């Protein structure tokens, strides 16, 4: 088949490689200029694109994404390692407070890979440009769809795309343009129904900065540990990367305008220093970028099948176009690889049946993506209510009655640094190695979490700045 992929970011590259290696002729259309830089540091320096602000934000290849990458694109996996990415076993994510660090069966499936997103994209772009069956055209914007009457009574059938550089025919069109996709406008302009779209707020903004471990300095802790602290008024995190690079991020409520000051690197540093767990890291790291901001974050879910009927045939969507969730949990790469691998399998299973293709892709969303979206909506809703109460004095959130046969994400997050069963349950959630409901209702997980949280003094209070200390740190830009 001739496949046109709109979007040449990570999702589009995953799909292009898998489809080309399955025997399809692939054309990737990307609106931005994409350059294969000489090395990962040159790629990192040029990584920021306004159309894809997530590229410069913290990333970690979580368990499910790492497994899919190894299974589906082992050459890309190995290329990442050669580029300086690090495969990190679960033991690297064990905090010092965990009382039992003994390895257990299944730990190998929870390993992660530390890399900057720009390094992953550099490796992917090199692979795409080396694949003979893939043509990459940059500085081309997809503006609409070409359609023909359906092969059967029903929705329009997509036969290609319109671009600002002419029309392109295709047997299959894939939207990999991300969270800002114009797919609904394309569909309605072509006389089709819009997609079924759901949205709920994340409610946070991201401010992050890249660092490198200072040569000759002993790290104050495990250098591959992802460390996130959810405080009363904001959250702060440290992510490992490739080639001794690391990222620090501050993520407050998007509506908390006090934190706009952290765009100033000095203010950013002072805010991070208010959190004791991160002070020693700042003393071991050298900044290598300014502060990058990212807002407009939502949990979203898009379906191209509504009421059991595709909105169009010959058109598929994958990656952030289909689903975005709170970036703190790092699911985006897993969603992208799940969609790309599922699309390759679907085209192989139903090469001549566009309607069956659409239904199969929708089944994939139901089984592997929607449960994580629905769970994140609940988690973010509870967290936002609590933080708004503490920051703005809003209504105190109503605490639901404690269920006897299940726990929730918030309970796992609090308990996981102190219990080995809960710790692994948390990383199975993070790594998408089981559906949330399966983990939250696991009897051993429920018993371990409940026992720990009911033990006086088992979970010490988290050290964090006072309101006055935070205000002083945030006011530095004004007083200089």
UniProtKB/TrEMBL annotation:
<dbReference type="InterPro" id="IPR006076">
    <property type="entry name" value="FAD-dep_OxRdtase"/>
</dbReference>
<keyword id="KW-0285">Flavoprotein</keyword>
<protein>
    <submittedName>
        <fullName>FAD-dependent oxidoreductase</fullName>
    </submittedName>
</protein>
<keyword id="KW-0274">FAD</keyword>
<keyword id="KW-0560">Oxidoreductase</keyword>
<dbReference type="InterPro" id="IPR036188">
    <property type="entry name" value="FAD/NAD-bd_sf"/>
</dbReference>
<keyword id="KW-0503">Monooxygenase</keyword>
<dbReference type="InterPro" id="IPR050493">
    <property type="entry name" value="FAD-dep_Monooxygenase_BioMet"/>
</dbReference>
<dbReference type="Pfam" id="PF01266">
    <property type="entry name" value="DAO"/>
</dbReference>
<dbReference type="GO" id="GO:0004497">
    <property type="term" value="F:monooxygenase activity"/>
</dbReference>
<feature type="domain" description="FAD dependent oxidoreductase">
    <location>
        <begin position="2"/>
        <end position="38"/>
    </location>
</feature>
């Amino acid at each position: 088949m001739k496949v046109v992929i709109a979007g040449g970011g990570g999702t589009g590259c995953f799909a292009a490689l898998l489809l080309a290696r399955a025997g399809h002729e692939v054309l990737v259309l990307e609106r931005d200029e994409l350059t294969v830089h000489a090395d990962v540091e040159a790629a990192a320096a040029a990584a920021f694109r306004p159309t894809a602000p997530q590229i410069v934000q913290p990333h970690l290849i979580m368990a499910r994404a790492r497994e899919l990458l190894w299974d589906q694109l082992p050459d890309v996996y190995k290329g990442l390692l050669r580029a300086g990415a690090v495969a990190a076993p679960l033991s690297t994510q064990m905090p010092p407070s965990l009382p039992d660090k003994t390895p257990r069966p299944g730990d190998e499936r929870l390993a992660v890979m530390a890399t900057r997103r720009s390094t992953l994209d550099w490796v992917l772009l090199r692979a795409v440009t080396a694949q003979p069956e893939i043509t990459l055209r940059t500085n081309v914007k997809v503006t609409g769809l070409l359609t023909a009457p359906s092969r059967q009574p029903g929705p329009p059938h997509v036969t290609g795309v319109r671009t600002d550089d002419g029309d392109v025919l295709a047997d299959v069109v894939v939207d990999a343009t991300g969270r800002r996709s114009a797919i609904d406008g394309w569909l309605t302009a072509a006389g089709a129904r819009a997609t079924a779209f759901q949205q709920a707020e994340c409610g946070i903004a991201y401010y992050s900065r890249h660092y490198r471990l200072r040569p000759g300095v002993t790290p104050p802790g495990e250098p591959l540990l992802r460390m996130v602290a959810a405080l009363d008024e904001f959250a702060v995190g440290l992510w490992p990367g490739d080639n001794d690079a690391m990222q620090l991020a501050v993520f407050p409520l998007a509506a908390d305008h006090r934190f706009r000051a952290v765009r100033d690197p000095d203010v950013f540093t002072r805010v991070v220093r208010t959190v004791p767990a991160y002070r020693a890291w700042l003393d071991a790291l050298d900044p290598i970028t300014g502060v990058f901001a990212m807002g407009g974050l939502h949990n979203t879910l898009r379906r191209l099948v509504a009421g059991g009927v595709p909105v169009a045939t010959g058109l598929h969507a994958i990656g952030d176009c289909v689903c975005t969730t709170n970036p703190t949990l790092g699911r985006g790469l897993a969603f992208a690889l799940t969609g790309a691998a599922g699309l390759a399998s679907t085209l192989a299973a139903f090469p001549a049946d566009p309607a069956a293709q659409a239904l199969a892709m929708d089944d994939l969303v139901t089984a592997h993506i929607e449960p994580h979206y629905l769970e994140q909506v609940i988690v973010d809703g509870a967290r936002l209510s609590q933080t708004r109460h503490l920051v703005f004095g809003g209504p105190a959130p109503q605490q639901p009655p404690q269920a006897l046969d299940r726990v929730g994400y918030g309970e796992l997050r609090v308990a996981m640094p102190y219990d080995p069963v809960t710790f692994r349950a948390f990383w199975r959630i993070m790594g998408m190695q089981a559906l949330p409901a399966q983990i939250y209702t696991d009897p051993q997980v429920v018993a371990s979490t409940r026992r720990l949280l009911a033990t006086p003094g088992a979970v010490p209070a988290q050290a964090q700045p006072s309101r006055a200390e935070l205000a002083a740190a945030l006011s530095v830009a004004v007083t200089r």
